[in-house]
Design a protein that fits this description.
By secondary structure, the chain is an alpha/beta fold. The chain has a single domain (about 5-365), classed as Alpha-Beta Barrel (TIM Barrel), CATH 3.20.20.70. Helix content is about 35%, strand content about 15%. The protein is built from eleven helices and 14 strands. A hairpin with a 2-residue loop joins strand 1 and strand 2 (about 15). Helix 1 (about 40-45) runs parallel beside helix 2, helix 3 (about 155-170) runs parallel beside helix 5 (about 205-225) and helix 5 packs parallel to helix 6. The structure holds flavin mononucleotide. The site of flavin mononucleotide has 22 residues, from strand 4 and helix 9.
Length: about 375
């Protein structure tokens, strides 16, 4: 199929063979103890190496950053060695892979932090639940407690942890990192008036709420270079206590800053909404005007929607989340119009190879290159 989705794209120093991106997908299958990536994780990512770009799952920048059971980190020697298995396998299979790095902030639980209360810009509780594993590796949702507001002096060490995590990711063989500033985690908590009630220079005005993001971006760029640094935002997502009336102008200001810094890409995660959607289109156009560099969009995309957003010039790359969970060969399936496997949500988080590396390739691919 002669679609722009299957044309190559230059992203920093990388040439992507297509514009079908695998976005970060938490799967809660890191090896224990230590939250260390394993050979099974390497197999899962290598199966998906035909993506134009893989962005590996949200990964803790430090032990303190943790917000979910069984998610990997990139702060210990063992974790860096575990990720090396993954990046080597993906590169050997012809792929390209960034790592998403995060701090969960208030979306956490003392059980994940050695009993310590989670931290956030302000002592405002997340009005929802997070996933905690039981000893058998299966899990359930639990309430988050009221977090502790970070002291001003505690912020710079977190920025330094983002920087170190980016360096560790490069040491582990990643092609770059994606700073997770979306989905109501710590950076997003600073961006939004709903979760940031600070009265120092990290809260209040838009510039102040953007300060933490700016500092993290500058620290990461300073360590690994702008061409290896991507950023994810989700300004149109209002769930999870994020219904900030200033979220779109804040994101446009962030986009202008990121364009000026020359980051590799801006990635937005958006709610799944019925089409056509004038509000989404208007925001896409504004974002494009603020950020003339590569834009990745995600959120309920189908082949038709992906082609439409590329044709409008509102995005350069399109991420498919749940479809990539179920279809290791997603680009070929989209290109040839082959049917898609259906994702099984009961195996998204935690567990073993079932629902992880077990989804079949299309028969045509299996016949071409027997496993
Ligand atoms: C199981 C699962 C795990 C996810 N984990 C992450 C994550 O670690 N980081 C992130 O930014 N988004 C995460 N997301 C959001 C996806 O990256 C994506 O934006 C979302 O699924 C919308 O795309 P889709 O409609 O194609 O699935 C996750 C989504 C799912 C379904």
């Amino acid at each position: 199929m002669n679609s722009p989705l299957f044309q190559p794209f230059s992203l920093g120093a990388l040439t992507l063979p297509n514009r079908v991106v695998m976005p970060p997908l938490t799967r809660a299958r890191a090896g224990q103890p230590g939250n260390v990536p394993t050979a099974m994780n390497a197999e899962y990512y290598a199966q998906r190496a035909s993506a134009g770009l893989i962005i590996a799952e949200a990964t803790d920048i430090s032990a303190d950053a943790k917000g979910y059971s069984l998610t990997p980190g990139v702060h210990s020697t063992e974790q860096i060695a575990g990720w090396r298995l993954v990046t080597d396998a993906v590169h050997a299979a012809g792929g390209r892979i960034f790592l998403q790095i995060w701090h969960c902030g208030r979306m956490s639980h003392p059980d994940l932090r050695g009993g310590a209360t989670p931290v956030a810009p302000s002592a405002v509780a997340f009005p929802g639940q997070i996933w905690l594993a039981r000893p058998d590796g299966k899990g359930g949702m639990v309430d988050c407690p009221v977090p502790r507001a970070l002291d001003r002096a505690e912020i710079a060490p977190i920025v330094a942890s983002f920087r170190q995590a980016a360096l560790n990711a490069i040491e582990a063989g990643f092609d770059g990192v994606e700073i997770h500033a979306a989905n109501s985690y710590l950076i997003d908590q600073f961006l939004r008036t709903t979760s940031n009630h600070r009265d120092d220079d990290y809260g209040g005005s838009r510039d102040n709420r953007l300060r933490f993001l700016h500092e993290v971006v500058d620290a990461v760029i300073g360590a690994i270079g702008a061409e290896r640094t991507g950023v994810r935002l989700s300004p149109r997502n209002q769930a999870r206590g994020m219904d900030c009336p200033d979220s779109l102008p804040t994101a446009l200001a962030a986009a202008a800053f990121l364009a000026e810094r020359g980051v590799a890409y801006l990635h937005t995660n958006e709610p799944e909404e019925p089409e056509p959607n004038p509000a989404a289109e208007a925001f896409h156009a504004e974002l494009r005007a603020a950020f003339p560099r590569p834009i990745i969009v995600a959120g309920g995309y189908t082949l038709a929607r992906a082609e439409a957003v590329l044709a409008k010039g509102h995005a350069d790359l399109v991420a498919f989340g749940r479809p990539f969970i179920a279809n290791p060969d997603l680009p070929a399936r989209l290109q040839h119009g082959w049917p898609l496997n259906t994702p099984d949500a009961t195996t998204f988080f935690g567990g073993n190879a079932h629902g992880y590396t077990s989804y079949p390739f299309h028969a045509a691919i299996t016949e071409e290159s027997p496993a």
